[in-house]
Amino acid sequence: MATFPWVGLLLALCRQYPKEVVTVYAYKLGQSNTTLGFYNFYLPEVHRLYDLKKALFTETEKGVLTDDEISQLIPYYTFRRACRLGSIGLRAIQPKELKKYLASGYKESARASDLKDTTRYKQFLISKLWIYAMINKKELIDLASHLAEFLVAFEKTGGKRGKTGESNLVKETREAATLRAFVEKWAELMQNTAGRGEFPSERIHTIREAVHQVTLMPIDQFPLFAALVRFEYNYLKIKDNQ
Fold first, then answer.
1. pLDDT grade, residue 32 (50/70/90)?
2. Adjacent-strand bridge partners of 75
3. Do 137 and 237 touch, CB atoms closer than 8 A?
4. What span, in angstroms and rounded, lies between the C-alpha atoms of 218 and 27?
C-alpha cells in the first residue's frame, strides 16, 4: 500500500491547525522498526505559504496555483533527512525544483522555455512561493521584481555592447554566486545605462536603492533573494513568449 507523502501530511496539518506547534513522535515500520524521535512541527510557519499566496500573487496567478496544488510540492529532502534539521518547518520542505535556481546549482537549462510543461510550471510557482515565505518581507520581494524587470528591459535594448553583449551581461548578473559579484555586476549594468533614454533617472535610482537594500539583508538570505530574482526574470520571459 502506498504511503501518503510526508509533505502532503504536513501541509494538511498546517491548514487544519494554522496557529499551533505540535510535537510528533516519528518512526519507520519495516523489516526492522526505526525510531526517529520527537520533533516539533512548526505549523504557523508552514501555513505562511497559504497566507502569502493570497497576499502576493496576482489574481491570474491565484487561478494558476490553488491551495490543493501547493500540497503537490515535491521536496528536496526525504523525511528522514528533514528530521536532521532538528525540527520540521518551512525550511524542511524546500522544493526540489529550487536547486536549479540557487547559485550552487543554477543552470541555464532552467530557462523560461522549459517551463511550458504544466507540471513543471506548477512546481516553479510553488518554489517561488516558498522563497516568498522564507524571506517574508514584502519590500524585498518587490525589490526582486524590480530587478528582474530591469534585467529584461536591459536585455532588449541593445545599447553600448549590442544585444548579444547585453544578454551576456544579464546572464552574468543572474548567475552571480556571491553578494560581492552580484553588486559588481549591477554596478556594470548601471554604467551601461548612463545617458540612455530607455532608462530614466527615476528608474535608475530605484534600482540603485534596491541593490543597496540587498547589501543590508542578512547574509543567509542573499542566496534566496538571488534565486527569487532568477524566478521573477524567468516568469517575465514566460509572459513575453506567450
1. confident
2. 95
3. no
4. 36
| β-strand partners of 95 | 75
Q: What one-character-per-residue DSSP string does 153-190 give?
A: HHHHH-GGGHHHHHHHHHHHHHT--SHHHHHHHHHHHH
Q: How far, CA to CA in Å, does 241 sit from each of 110, 164, 168, 231, 238?
A: 15, 19, 20, 15, 5
Q: What is the largest CA-CA distance in the chain?
A: 71
The pTM assigned to this predicted structure is 0.83
Place of cell 518551512: 90
d(CA 119, CA 65): 11
Q: How confident is the model at residue 94 (pLDDT cuts 50, 70, 90)?
A: very high
Residue 29 pLDDT > 90 = no
Tell me how far the alpha carbon of residue 161 is from its chain's centroid: 30
